[in-house]
Design a protein that fits this description.
This protein is an all-alpha fold and about 325 residues long. The chain has one domain. Helix content is about 40%, strand content about 5%. The strands form 2 sheets. A two-stranded antiparallel ribbon has the order 1-4. Strands 2-3 form a two-stranded parallel sheet. The radius of gyration is 19 Å and the shape is globular. The chain starts with 7 loop residues before the first helix and ends with a helix.
């Protein structure tokens, strides 16, 4: 079956790379938002208690055994290593289209073996003859190269990862987005004012999670061209993921308990990313679903800026 690949013009892959401010830039300075116990209304009612089937709190927070921050968990089965060897881009099947219309949630997706095909997880492959240029390491930590918002580059990379195969132009755009995402997110992380509240932890760790997932996915596609051994350790050291969070069982308020539980899972996943590996596909899928589609909470990753990821999760 012939695979249809949209052209660069159709996808407008280069547009997010244009300089400019987004609302994410100002959000980064205002992350100490007030917690709201209201339900998020981005999912349509339909199940018991007015929630969409598959999005009940118990089914998502307990259906998947969470990775933990214990040393043993760092070698968790299913984690995908990133090396400076050959590209791992063929890991997910490129000939299988992402499953659409999957509002049934986790059980349905697992039953059809569709995790590796889902937009939250799947990756394209490089077309024959594509040669990625090396990352320009000296520019990654250069203040002059600093850009305004990481969100534009995450958006570009999301579009590229949604393709079936990547040609040379796609890969050139991807590498440019990687360089700018590294620079922007690194400087932002070093200047961030830490606030100690569960919703701030979710917002901060949630953005870190999206940044790290995009970069590790790029490493799987680009292989040696990422030159990760020259900059990854310095980059990851700037991201503080050690939030002092209470035991969720000690929290009576439902939304606050959800924030704490999600923040702890995000922190555990980030521990794996910092080692240059991607967490198991099921955990990546679940965390993105919890961030963008779960009805509880009113954090900043629920804002319209993140609507493309909500559409990927079939919750918009």
């Amino acid at each position: 079956m012939q695979v249809h690949v949209q052209t660069e013009q159709q996808l407008h892959l280069g547009e997010p790379l244009l300089e400019g401010r987004s609302d994410l830039e100002t959000e980064d300075d205002e992350l100490g938002s007030v917690e709201t116990p209201a339900f998020q209304t981005s999912v349509q009612p339909g199940g018991p208690g007015g929630l969409t089937p598959g999005l009940e709190p118990d089914s998502w927070l307990e259906a998947v055994q969470s990775i933990t921050r214990s040393p043993e968990a760092q070698g968790v089965a299913g984690a995908s290593p990133v090396t400076d060897g050959a590209s791992n881009a063929g890991q997910a099947s490129a000939s299988s289209a992402p499953r659409q219309g999957d509002r049934g949630g986790l059980k349905d997706l697992l039953n059809v073996g569709g995790i590796q095909k889902h937009p939250y997880v799947r990756l394209p492959v490089l077309q024959k003859g594509v040669v990625p240029r090396p990352i320009c390491v000296p520019l990654l930590f250069d203040e002059i190269q600093r850009r305004f918002s990481h969100h534009a580059y995450l958006s570009t990379m999301r579009k590229i990862f949604a393709l079936e195969t990547l040609n040379q132009e796609h890969v050139d755009v991807l590498i440019d987005a990687v360089e700018r995402l590294v620079t922007t997110s690194w400087f932002q992380s070093r200047s961030k004012q830490m606030r100690f509240s569960p919703v701030f932890a979710v917002e901060t760790l949630g953005v870190y999670f999206m940044v790290f997932d995009a970069l590790v996915c790029a490493s799987q596609l680009l292989g040696e061209s990422m030159q990760s051994h020259l900059w990854w350790e310095k980059f990851t050291a700037a991201f503080n993921t050690d939030f002092k969070l209470p035991d969720p069982k000690s929290i009576a308020q439902e939304t606050r308990r959800f924030y704490v539980t999600l923040a702890r899972r995000l922190a555990a996943a980030l521990d794996i990313y910092k080692q240059g590996m991607r967490p198991p596909a099921l955990e990546v899928y679940t965390l993105k679903k919890l961030l963008f589609c779960f009805p509880l909470g009113n954090h900043r990753l629920k804002r319209p800026t993140w609507d493309p990821w909500k559409r990927d999760g079939q919750c918009l």
